[in-house]
Specification:
By secondary structure, the chain is mainly α. It is about 75% helix and about 0% strand. Helix 3 packs across helix 4, helix 4 crosses helix 7 and helix 6 crosses helix 8. The longest helix has 23 residues. The chain is globular.
């Protein structure tokens, strides 16, 4: 980490290889599609390289990169909303369904409805749910990553769950 901070590109590339999957997984979960997640991941890693000299405590690299990732997702979402493109899910006309396929299709429809509900949440609420439930980070670590008090993390997590619950109910999944 220290070599990378002093501008050693090879050292930074080693860090990127170690962190890229985590950054991408977080961005994908927050943004909901591969293209935006790719953009946000690239933006986060480039932004981290540019701001690496501002990292005061190398032991907090993960939290620091987490904040940069969430901000890159926020920017990607702003760009997406300014484009206002509506993506329609691909519909596949397969062979006739048997009972097993029907159950699988029900789960797929539920996943699509869940994604629609999740997409209604503001980026801050998506981020906190992803960090807690997908990345399985404890409250203290989320507080560090988002640079907010633990009590604020708890209240935002509670609010995000409530908003998601209402969105799920509107999708018929409540």
């Amino acid at each position: 980490g220290e070599q990378a901070r002093r501008g050693d590109r090879a050292a930074y590339e080693a860090i990127v290889r170690r962190e890229v999957e985590t950054v991408y997984r977080t961005a994908r979960a927050i943004l909901g599609n591969d293209a935006d997640a790719d953009d946000a991941t690239q933006e986060a890693l480039i932004g981290a390289w540019r701001r690496l000299s501002s990292l005061r405590d190398p032991d907090r690299f993960d939290a620091w990169l987490g904040r940069i990732t969430v901000n890159a997702c926020r920017m990607a979402l702003r760009r997406r909303n300014s484009r206002a493109i509506v993506a329609l899910p691909a519909v596949s006309v397969a062979e006739p369904m048997d009972a097993g396929t029907s159950r699988l299709e029900d789960r797929t429809v539920d996943a699509v409805a869940f994604d629609r509900a999740f997409d209604r949440l503001p980026i801050d609420q998506r981020s906190i749910l992803v960090l807690h439930h997908l990345d399985e980070l404890p409250i203290a670590e989320i507080a560090t990553r988002l640079d907010i008090p633990e009590g604020t993390v708890k209240s935002r997590l509670h609010a995000a769950r409530s908003v998601l619950q209402r969105a799920l109910a509107r999708e018929g999944l409540g």
